Amino acid sequence: MILTVLLILQIKHFFCDFVLQTPYQFLNKGIYGHPGGFIHAGLHASTSMIAFFVIRPSLTLGAAIATPLMLPFLDQPLVQDYLPIFWVILFATLLRVAADAYGFALLALHRDRAIATIAVAGALASAGLNLVLTPLIGLWGAAIAFAITSGGLFAARYFFSRPRTFSISERPAKS
Fold first, then answer.
1. Does a structural domain hold residue 18?
2. pLDDT tens for residues 73-82?
3. Does 128 score more than 60 pLDDT?
């Protein structure tokens, strides 16, 4: 199932980046805020929606099979006990998805050094926070570590994806 989804999305990505992409999009998608980039992103978004409509029947079938198997577990006391942790993890996941959006912006802006630095710092922060918080407060520690790391990734990727502005005295010399 997952391989099918990945295959369909890879095929969609190939068509958007090679078959359907115009020279206008190709030449301008790396310029922050340029209409060519918005057109290219819109092309990806619209074809992703089409891809998910193609995938949807199999997802529906998977949910129909999984739901009866999961229902007995949802009424257990432990699920109720850990429900607040679930909301923290869900919030952290949403932060991570937002951070990934800015990660794609960094990729489009060719800021490879920022991508690598943020990735290494995020991995170290995640490992460190989990090593400290999980033994102290258990599953809550892991959820909080995930939320802090996701927030840090979001902030760093947002900061480094903003357009760079220079004053006249700071403007880099042309080579």
1. yes
2. 666 666 667 7
3. yes
Residue 168: phi, psi to the nearest 5? -60, -40
What is the DSSP annotation of 66-108? HHHHHHHHHTSHHHHHTHHHHHHHHHHHHHHHHHHHHHHHHHH
Enumerate residues 6+ apart whose C-beta is below 8 A from 118: 103, 106, 153, 156, 157, 160
Identify the band that residue 62 occupies on the pLDDT scale cut at 50, 70 and 90.
Answer: low
Task: Take residue 94 and report the two structure tokens written for it.
Answer: 């949403």
Nearest to 41 by CA among 105, 99, 84: 105
Considering the domain architecture, whether residues 49 and 112 belong to the same structural domain is answered as: no
Residue 25 has which token pair? 């999009």
- Domain hosting residue 34, numbered range: 1-73
Please tell me the distance from the alpha carbon of residue 154 to that of residue 91, in angstroms, as a whole number: 12
State how far the Cα of 129 lies from the Cα of 145, in Å rounded to an integer. 5
DSSP 170: T
Predicted model pTM: 0.55
For tokens 């229902």, what's the residue? 71
Same domain, yes or no, for 38 and 104? Answer: no
Residues 6-25: pLDDT tens digits?
Answer: 777 788 888 888 888 888 88
Dihedral of the CA atoms 158, 162, 168, 170 (nearest 10)?
A: 40
